[in-house]
Design goal:
Component of the lipopolysaccharide transport and assembly complex. Interacts with LptE and LptA. The chain is mainly beta. It has four helices and 39 strands. It has four domains: about 220 residues, Lipopolysaccharide (LPS) transport protein A like domain (lipopolysaccharide transport protein A fold), CATH 2.60.450; about 130 residues, no CATH class; about 80 residues, no CATH class; about 190 residues, no CATH class. A hairpin with a 4-residue loop joins β8 and β9. The longest helix is centred in the first third of the chain and has 14 residues.
Length: about 650
């Protein structure tokens, strides 16, 4: 029968697709209101086979129990009428098409479904020539967004859709925890905009918000306009109301202006300017509060985050923060992380990388953000800091390199200096498919040029020798009915650094590193170049993993290791020995650490980590464990002990969503 159906009638699914667009745009009014997730309000009418071809290329199929073409100007399909194309399907009782005027009418309940939605209507009629369509008493179900609702009438004229008496919710029709209702909704697909009149949001059947007019986007095109406001209250500032306005200036840059009313302080203006070019991208944020009534002064802030791709080797970056006063973050920041900072660092520089080298030149400076701290607490500015590293294989079994750094330290109240740190090294890496051995020998030389000091040019030089070796074993394993590859990876690491008295050297940026599993294989227990720890120690460690044999995905990673100190470490930071009693007379100590990480869901896994433990120099031992389950409840545990063996882990639990 398909060959006798008029061609214009086959365009009916296309008209319904336009109706879909209007209905589908409505949930953008309330897409963030996910107070409940309802089951299907309208179940699927029939199972359609998957269609590989797009809709525009797929044929239209029409079936009916009876076809009446006795009138040459009129075609009537009766009884279980079905039209489908690709993923689109339409069902009705009677479909009448008038050829001369190109009008159609569906009588009886109209049912429609595709991959994104389903709807029913009591009546549907339209004019294909004028591209207008009307549907009465519509109920719809969005499949992908899980929303549903009703409309008393839907009218379509080309790409413009109008709905009267419309509603939307993500809840079951009989149990509306929340619902959006509007007397009139108009959607213009060409403009990508919709408007709603007489819109009301209901919570538990009670109206809580009404607006006589509301405009909203229906696609991803950027447009200038108001964004959602934020309202709060602060005991000191009073009412806190922000109303952001977005300016779509150009395809590659935009701006957001945010007036912020602070009841007891005044009106603050915030700006955010974003830009993107083929070589540059960044964000500039500013705030300005003239004449803060509580502080009796102007308040302001600036933040610049910028990245420039200069060429294939060099990159420029800047992350700059400036505040008008130390109390700014405490008074205005909405970030608890920023409010907890006593100093904020600004840094800008250039970073380069080549086949055998990498280098950087940067400048960094700190600003105090804690009103209780004095200038003496401020960390040193590095103006500038230059680094250069070079590493190149000389032979298949021999490689050499150098790590270097030059820094100028500046401070408003403390001694200033320049520091040069050089570390040439040579290694002979040997490896096979299941083993590796890496002996390495280096020399570290650090020199200072100190202002206003008795010894204005102290220096330190000492050799550093290490031997790192390990092996890899694997076997098939079957756990809980699942096939895995189980690995066993033992590793030995020996480190020797002779003792040098470094008490005459200043400390600008060195800190003792937090003890963790990775610390078992580092050649210095301090950060920075002001201290190089002495060492005569050996580390024994072993790692086991469970791997997916098909994808290589790591499902479990467990490691345990222990350091044996043949001579006690003696190098400390100023005042450290008095605080922690780090220098002891025992000739043999051990420190150990373990880490476990597991992933039991395909979408996510955890990385091995070790929470903060005590210093290994004090002979403490630390054991930690981390594991992840499908609900992402994380359990961590840690113990510290002065015993010479690894302790068993005590456990504490924390659940997170």
């Amino acid at each position: 029968m398909d060959y006798r159906v008029p061609p214009r009638l086959r365009q009916l699914p296309i008209a319904l697709a336009a109706a879909l667009a209007a209905l589908h745009a409505t949930p953008s009014l309330a897409q963030d209101w996910t107070l409940c997730r309802a089951p299907d309000a309208i179940p699927a009418f029939r199972e359609l086979p998957p269609e590989a071809r797009p809709r525009a290329e797929a044929p239209v199929n029409i079936e009916a129990l009876e076809l009446d073409v006795s009138d040459e100007n009129r075609t009537v399909l009766t009884g279980d009428v079905e039209l489908w194309r690709a993923d689109q399907w339409l069902g009705t009782d009677v479909l009448v098409y008038e050829h001369a005027v190109e009008r159609y009418q569906a009588q009886g309940e109209v049912r429609y479904q595709d991959d994104s939605m389903r709807f029913t209507a009591q009546r549907m009629q339209g004019d294909l020539a004028a591209d207008t369509h009307e549907l009465d008493e519509v109920r719809y179900q969005l499949v992908t967004q899980r929303g549903n609702g009703e409309a008393r009438q839907v009218r379509l004229r080309g790409n413009i859709g109008e709905m009267q008496g419309a509603s939307f919710s993500t809840c079951d029709p009989d149990k509306r925890s929340w619902e959006l209702r509007a007397s009139d909704i108009r959607v213009d697909q060409d403009e990508g905009m919709g408007t709603a009149r007489g819109a009301t949001i209901y919570l538990g059947g009670v109206p809580v918000l009404y607006t006589p007019w509301l405009s909203f986007p229906t696609d991803d095109r950027r447009r200038s306009g108001l964004l959602y406001p934020t309202v709060g209250y602060d005991a000191e500032s009073g009412l806190d109301l922000s109303i952001p306005y977005y300016l779509n200036l150009a395809p590659n840059y935009d701006m957001t202006l945010t007036p912020r009313l602070l009841g007891r302080r005044g009106v603050m203006l915030g700006t955010e300017f974003r830009y993107l070019t083929p070589r540059h991208r960044g964000t500039l944020e500013t705030t300005w509060l003239p004449n803060d009534r509580l502080a009796d002064r102007d308040r302001a802030s600036l933040r610049l985050n910028h990245v420039s791709r200069l060429n294939r080797h060099w990159l420029g970056q800047a992350n700059v923060w400036r505040f008008s006063d130390r109390e700014y973050l405490e008074d205005f920041s909405e970030s608890s992380h920023l409010r907890a900072q006593s100093q904020i660092r600004s840094i800008a520089g250039f970073h380069g990388r080549g086949q055998f080298w990498d280098s950087s030149i940067s400048a960094s400076k700190f600003q105090l953000t804690d009103p209780l701290l004095g200038e003496n607490s401020l960390q040193y500015a590095q103006l500038p800091r230059v680094t250069f590293r070079y590493q190149r294989p000389l032979l298949p079994w021999l490689e050499a390199g150098v790590r270097s750094e030059a820094v100028a330290f500046e401070h408003p109240t403390r001694v200033e200096a320049r520091r040069l740190d050089l570390r040439p090294w040579m290694a002979a890496p040997l490896e096979g498919n299941a083993w590796f051995v890496r002996p390495e020998l280096g020399y570290r030389y650090t020199a200072y040029d100190i202002d206003r000091a008795t010894d204005d040019s102290p220096s330190r030089g000492l050799p550093i020798a290490s031997l790192d070796m390990g092996a890899f074993f694997e076997r098939p394993a079957n756990l809980f009915g699942r096939e895995f590859i189980n690995t066993l990876e033992p590793r030995l690491y020996y480190l020797y650094v002779p003792y040098r008295d470094q008490d005459n050297l200043p400390v600008f940026d060195s800190r003792e590193l937090t003890f963790g599993y990775a610390q078992l294989f580092r050649d210095n227990r301090f950060s920075g170049a002001d201290r190089q720890g002495d060492a005569n120690q050996a580390t024994a460690a072993v790692t086991t993993r469970l791997l997916d044999p098909g994808t290589g995905r790591e499902w479990l990673n467990a490691s345990v290791g222990q350091i044996r100190y043949f001579t006690p470490p003696r190098v400390t930071l100023p005042g450290q020995a008095r605080r922690s009693g780090a220098v002891r007379t025992t000739s043999s100590r051990r420190s150990c650490c373990s880490t476990t990480a597991g992933a039991c869901v395909p979408a996510r896994s955890t990385a091995p980590s070790c929470p903060r433990g005590r210093s290994r120099r004090s002979g403490d031992s630390t054991a930690t464990a981390t594991a992840a389950w499908s609900t992402w409840a994380t359990a961590t545990g840690a113990t510290s002990s002065n015993r010479p063996t690894c302790p068993s882990s005590s456990r504490s639990g924390r659940t997170g969503g």
